[in-house]
Amino acid sequence: MILIGSRALALRQPSALFRKPLDFDWICTQEEYETWVKKNSAKVNPTKIYELPEHHKWIVEGSTNCEFEIIAPNTSSALVNNFIDDEWLETPFGWIPPLDFLFTIKDSHKHKKFETPRGCASFYKTAIDWHVMTKLGAKIRDEYKEFHSLRERESNPHKMPKLNVSKNDFFDSDKNGVIQTFVHDDIHVAVAINDRPAYTYYMKDGSEVLTDKNKFFSMPENIRLSGTIEEAMVLAIERSLVPHKDVWTPDFAFKFALAKVCTTITGGYFRRYSFLNLFEALKIYPKNYWGSFQKAVQAGTVRYINENGP
Question: Most buried pick, 79, 207, 208, 242, via CB within 10 A?
Answer without folding.
Answer: 242
